[in-house]
């Protein structure tokens, strides 16, 4: 791996404090000003609190159309119910991948009233010709998610996408970690990277696509906690932990470069499509 192909940090953005659902406190990265940089992703929310008042209200029944939601739990338990009859609880290390497509009405409620609840919800856009595809749902248990463990103590879990993982000091010992999900049009990569103090890791994946790194614990040499770094294309993404170690999500995907028209839980390409989504929801046609 040539040092000339290293991905460069182009931009850093801080997550903003927000609330959603029934008063759930979150850290959020989203909005029109980030649409181009995050493409094909739309949003990243983090919940991280051991105060029940911050999360117990959960996310009562609500609709979606036109994109996919990815929920990844680090601690605590969350119950999903939807109009298709799906119901399940995901807990530490588990993932729920839901394709809203034409329409989903669902709820996501904490399965606890005390203790730490820590997790993420990521919105991944669908291309224009897939926005009205049938809805789908899948739970991925922690044991299904492959990981690479390095001698340094670094661990990389791949939820989506194939990733080559190496220690920069021993780059001849490369491990390939295969994502737990099949290929998508948007070619998503989603990995959880955990580094002990001072450790480093070289990640190689989809070199032609830009990448994002969200630090949710500790820091890297370039990013602090609750910061998102936007990296350009390249063969290598080098991450090195600070003195407290680092825990980060790595995301990448094939940009759609399509118009985005969004109103809350509906993400379409035109205003007319948004108006149709609202009308369908108001007249109980969203999920037909």
Topology:
Elements lengths: L8 E6 L1 E5 L3 E7 L4 H4 L2 E9 L9 E6 L2 E9 L1 E6 L4 E5 L3 E5 L4 E7 L6 E9 L10 E5 L6 E3 L5 E6 L2 E5 L2 E8 L11 E7 L4 E5 L6 E10 L6 E5 L5 E16 L8 E3 L2 E3 L2 H12 L6
Question: Order of SSEs, N→C?
Answer: EEEHEEEEEEEEEEEEEEEEEEEEH
CA-based shape: globular
Structural class: mainly beta
CATH H level of the largest domain: which superfamily? Jelly Rolls
Number of helices: 2
> Beta-strand percentage?
over 45%
Number of domains: 2
> Low-confidence parts, pLDDT < 50 over ≥5 residues?
none
CATH fold call of the largest domain? Jelly Rolls
Assembly classification: single chain
Could you explain the architecture of this structure?
β13 (147-149) and β14 (155-160) form a beta hairpin. The mean pLDDT is 94. With 288 residues, this protein is mainly β. The chain folds into two domains: 3-9 and 146-252, Jelly Rolls, CATH 2.60.120.10; 16-142, Jelly Rolls, CATH 2.60.120.10. The protein is built from two helices and 23 strands. The longest helix has 12 residues, at 271-282. The strands form four sheets. Strands 1, 13, 14, 15, 16, 17, 18, 19, 20 and 21 form a ten-stranded antiparallel beta sheet that branches. Strands 2-3-4-11-6-9-12 form a seven-stranded antiparallel beta sheet, with no helix packed on it.
């Amino acid at each position: 791996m040539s040092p000339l192909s290293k991905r460069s940090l182009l931009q850093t953005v801080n997550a903003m404090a927000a609330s959603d659902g029934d008063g759930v406190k979150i850290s959020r990265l989203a909005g029109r000003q980030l649409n181009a940089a995050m493409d094909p992703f739309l949003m990243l929310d983090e919940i991280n609190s051991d105060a029940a008042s911050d999360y117990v209200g959960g996310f009562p029944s609500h609709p979606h159309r036109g994109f996919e939601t990815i929920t990844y739990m680090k601690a605590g338990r969350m119950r999903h119910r939807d109009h298709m009859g799906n119901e399940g609880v995901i807990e530490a290390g588990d993932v729920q991948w839901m394709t809203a497509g034409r329409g989903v009405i669902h709820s996501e409620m904490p399965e606890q009233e005390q203790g730490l609840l820590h997790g993420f919800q990521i919105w991944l856009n669908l291309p224009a010709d897939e926005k009205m595809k049938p809805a789908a749902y899948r739970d991925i248990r922690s044991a299904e998610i492959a990981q690479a463990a390095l001698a340094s103590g670094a661990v990389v879990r791949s939820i989506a996408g194939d990733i080559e993982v190496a220690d920069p000091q021993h780059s001849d010992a490369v491990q390939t970690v295969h994502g737990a999900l099949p290929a998508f049009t948007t070619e998503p990569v989603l990995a959880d990277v955990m580094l002990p103090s001072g450790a480093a890791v070289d990640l190689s994946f989809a070199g032609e696509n830009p990448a994002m790194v969200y630090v949710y614990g500790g820091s890297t040499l370039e990013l602090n906690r609750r910061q998102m770094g936007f990296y350009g294309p390249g063969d290598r993404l080098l991450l090195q932990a600070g003195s407290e170690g680092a825990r980060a999500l790595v995301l990448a995907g094939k940009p759609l470069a399509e118009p985005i028209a969004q109103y809350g839980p509906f993400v379409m390409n035109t205003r007319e499509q948004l108006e149709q989504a609202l009308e369908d929801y108001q007249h109980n046609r969203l999920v037909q």
